[in-house]
Amino acid sequence: MDQLGKVLASFGIGKREVDIYLALVERGEMTARELSDLLAIPYTKIYVHLQRLERLGLITTTGEARPAKFRATPPMEVYRILVRQTSEILKTLKPFFDSLQIVYESRYAAATSTFLTLIRGAERVSDLINEVLSEAETEAYLALPFEELISYRLFATIVEESKRISIKVLTTVRLRAKFDLPPRVEVRAVPEMFGGGAIGGSVLIFVKHSGEISGVYSNERFIAEIAKTYFYNVWQRAK
């Protein structure tokens, strides 16, 4: 039970609330007064714990009887609730750790000469497009077929970085009018593109699958050369 208490505490569930839940599991339905007397919790405070447990889905109120009785949610259902909550928390942290991994691999180049990282979501892809532009040494190539990636921030980066490097931008005919950029930035359009990318010192390649933009980011020179070759092939046919 100590281990259970430690685990639940990590979800913000206190010892008193653990005691209430276990009492309801072991003894069945009980009223607030019965729980207060059994666990020596002041009656004026018992409802604070009950309301929190009910909000978390660990207990329910039974029927319309007065006084109300409380019932424990089946333990396996509680387990599934906790697993689901843990999964959701970890999912929110993944973009942060993706970013840390990219920073780590780029900083420890001596230990990890090349890296390949999976990227998910338009926001992360946008961040890396800007990073590829900012870190390019002499030239950069962008293929942007998705409107979600077109933003004021992107244009500001293109305009600023084009003062020091050559930038070519490939987009679709439908989106061409949105690219109001200085003449020094070459912009061409094709009827449509399956996916896009950003190529500089590193390379980002992305597609849209099931409504989500995702792709790969790498500093592998061979991958960058393949991406550049494909870019130029499409560029020659663009207007």
Automatic annotation (TrEMBL):
UniProt cross-references to Gene3D superfamilies, sorted A to Z: Winged helix-like DNA-binding domain superfamily/Winged helix DNA-binding domain
> What GO molecular-function term can you cite, just one?
DNA-binding transcription factor activity
One Pfam annotation, family name? TrmB
Give every HTH arsR-type domain span.
3-84
Supply the name of the protein: Transcriptional regulator
Q: Hey, what's the signal peptide range on this chain? A: none
Which InterPro entries does its entry note? Answer: ArsR-like_HTH, HTH_ArsR_DNA-bd_dom, TrmB-like, Tscrpt_reg_TrmB_N, WH-like_DNA-bd_sf, WH_DNA-bd_sf
Q: Which organism is it from?
A: Pyrobaculum oguniense (strain DSM 13380 / JCM 10595 / TE7)
The record ties this protein, via SUPFAM superfamilies, to:
Winged helix' DNA-binding domain
